[in-house]
Amino acid sequence: MSLDLAVLAFLASMLAIWAGGRALTRSADLIAGHTGLGRVFVGSFLLAATTSLPEIATEAAAASLGLVDIALGDLFGSNIFNMTIIAVAGAVWGGGSLLAAASRSHIVTATFGMLLSAMAAMAVLVRPNVGVLGIGADVWLIVAVYVMGIRLLKSHAMEDRADAAGRAAERSVLADIVAVWARYLAAGALVIGGAILLARAAETIAEATGLGQTFVGSTMVAITTSTPEIVTTIAAVRLGAVDLAVGNVLGSNIFNMTILLVSDIFYRGGYILSAGGQTHALTALVGLILSGLVVLGLAAPITRRLGRVSGEAALLLGVYLVGTIILFLHR
Questions:
Q1: Measured at the alpha carbon of residue 253, what is the angle toward residues 180 and 52, in degrees to the nearest 5?
Q2: Any bridge partners for residue 305, and if so which?
Q3: Contact status, residue 239 vs residue 94, Cβ threshold 8 Å
Q4: For residue 221, is pLDDT > 80?
Q5: What backbone torsions phi and psi does residue 132 show, to the nearest 5 degrees?
Q6: Residue 258 burial class via C-beta count within 10 angstroms: exposed 0-12, middle 13-18, buried 19 and up
Q7: Between 44 and 257, whose confidence is greater?
Q8: 260 closest CA partner among 135, 125, 150, 114
Q9: Which of 86, 23, 10, 13 is nearest to 248 (CA)?
Q10: d(CA 169, CA 30)
């Protein structure tokens, strides 16, 4: 793919993701009401898993080509970039602290995301190089903790279900559940297709810059594969579905770590966490700091604002900027 064609593909895919993301979010909100699962759980599990699917395609392609640092950089980098989406969504929200308006159940999701990232970072540093059925034992452990986390999240989202039931009663005459699911799947396919094309175009553009694999994976590729989260989160905020928005971002962070399973399956040079550069542990640490700030924002929101930007948003963006500079210097 030539550079000119890559730029056109990049713009076209962004348009597809924007259109599909808006429809995906509206459908997810209706599903939360119809099923009674609520916005916290649907955002953290269903919507997060759907918007994270482009990472799977990117991981499979990068790992199969032996591009370990691109693959790991995409996942760890997506996790730190996702935290800035909360900051951007807060500016769109414009009604005080976004995290103050969100359910405290998100603390569970954020904490599990921190736990999984820490486990992956530890594996990168220790390099256990022990596997089961051709997959690293560290990756199996991460997947097992993810399953436990989803079960715990479902129980903690109970408080959101009363509200969900009320919305279901109000909207049951407006949309048939089968039609809602059909729209959700169609919108999801559009978003995923656009994101895969976006990642391929970004890879071509990134190669022309001559930057290192780890930095490119942690920044440009990570940002492009996180585009569905950006679009759906902002769309959710515009709908007033704060829990759907926050759940989508935090849920994507924990789902991203399970994609390591896909990476390990396609990587044939050993176990992927044992093969990656140790700079990825630094990326994970930046993500842990940002996630910790989000947890603090959920528990004790910062109400002070700088124009339309809340104090929590300014803090998240500032830490992300400093972290990116550090990663560039250690690329």
A1: 45
A2: 310
A3: no
A4: no
A5: -135, 125
A6: buried
A7: 257
A8: 135
A9: 86
A10: 11
Q: Are 200 and 65 in contact (CB under 8 A)?
A: no
Q: What is the DSSP string of 108-131?
A: HHHHHHHHHHHHHHHHHHH----E
Nearest-Å Rg of the Cα atoms of the chain is 19
Give the C-alpha separation, 184 to 167, whole Å. 18
> What confidence category does residue 207 fall into, taking pLDDT thresholds of 50, 70 and 90?
low
Position 313 confidence tier, pLDDT thresholds 50, 70, 90: confident
Task: List domains and CATH numbers for the chain.
Answer: 3-329 (1.20.1420.30)
Asked if residues 69 and 126 have their Cβ atoms less than 8 Å apart, the reply is no
Supply 82's token pair. 């996702």
Give which of 312, 171, 313 is closest to 239, Cα–Cα.
171
Rounded Cα–Cα distance for residues 130 and 270 (Å): 9
Half-sphere exposure (Cβ direction) of 182: Cα atoms closer than 13 Å: 5
Contact by Cβ (8 Å): 63, 266: yes
Mean per-residue pLDDT, 259-267: 89
pLDDT of residue 38 exceeding 80: no
Of residues 86 and 180, the one with the higher pLDDT is 86
Residue (of 115, 65, 52, 93) closest to 248 by Cα position = 52
Cite the DSSP H helix spans in 172-271: 177-209, 213-216, 222-225, 227-239, 242-258, 260-266
